[in-house]
Design goal:
single chain, alpha/beta, 4-stranded antiparallel β-sheet, 11 strands, about 20% strand
């Protein structure tokens, strides 16, 4: 599984990453709230392990609440030294799926994480995404808008899927390079502009409402809001 660990304690982070890696998981790590928020909203994870108190001006619960408000249902295990009943209730009400108190045994963390992943996998598999009359079938790669079938190239489909998964959010060029093209550097080309232009022609041309918008100096947004 691909996991995100947001934890500022270096010793705890090394301990958890080592154990999860030995268990066969891939782990991304952020040691502050700002980087944790960036990772959480810009990539897809099977689960997130979230420390409650973080440096960087954003605490763990704020990240959890932001994800839930955006419709992101990724399983989240909250880690915290705050062991009061009220604190545990607050963590779960913010959108956390489980709450583990520090210090903890790695075996318990792994067991709780496995339980979260099992519950997530038992839910119905997502097979389609839709926004404002535009829909894509993730199994057949069929794309439709207002009953009309649209023909997209594989990279255009991947781009549209990513934009739909982040609907009504600004998606930066860096996010697209990393998650659609798998580039972790700027290739200094206009590849994004070309594909955005082609995608806009296919999903917006001839329709009364423009869904794919350019947000000046920020990136792009797929939105059906006026």
């Amino acid at each position: 599984m691909k996991l995100l660990l947001v934890e500022d304690n270096e010793r705890v982070s090394r301990f958890v990453i080592k154990g999860l890696s030995e268990a066969g998981h891939t782990v991304d790590h952020a040691d502050n709230g700002r980087d944790g928020m960036y990772h959480a909203v810009s990539a897809t994870y099977d689960a997130i392990i979230m420390d409650r108190m973080l440096p960087g001006g954003i605490d763990g619960l704020a990240i959890v609440e932001t994800l839930r408000k955006s419709g992101n249902r990724v399983p989240i295990l909250i880690l915290s030294a705050l062991d009061g009943v009220d604190e545990r209730i607050r963590g779960l009400k913010s959108g956390g799926d489980d709450y583990l108190i520090k210090p903890f045994a790695f075996g318990e963390l792994l067991a709780r994480l496995d339980a979260l992943l099992r519950r997530s996998q038992e839910k119905s598999v997502e097979t389609s995404l839709a926004l404002g009359g535009l829909s894509i079938d993730l199994l057949t790669h069929k794309v439709m808008r207002d009953g009309r079938t649209l023909s997209l190239q594989p990279r255009e489909f991947k781009l549209l899927e990513y934009l739909l998964r982040h609907a009504n959010q600004v998606v930066t060029r860096t996010m697209l390079l990393e998650n659609v093209w798998d580039y972790h550097f700027d290739p200094q080309t206009n590849v994004i502009d070309v594909h955005i232009s082609k995608l806009r022609q296919k999903i917006d041309a001839g329709f009364p409402t423009q869904l794919l918008r350019t947000v000046r100096s920020a990136g792009y947004m797929l939105s059906d809001h006026a």
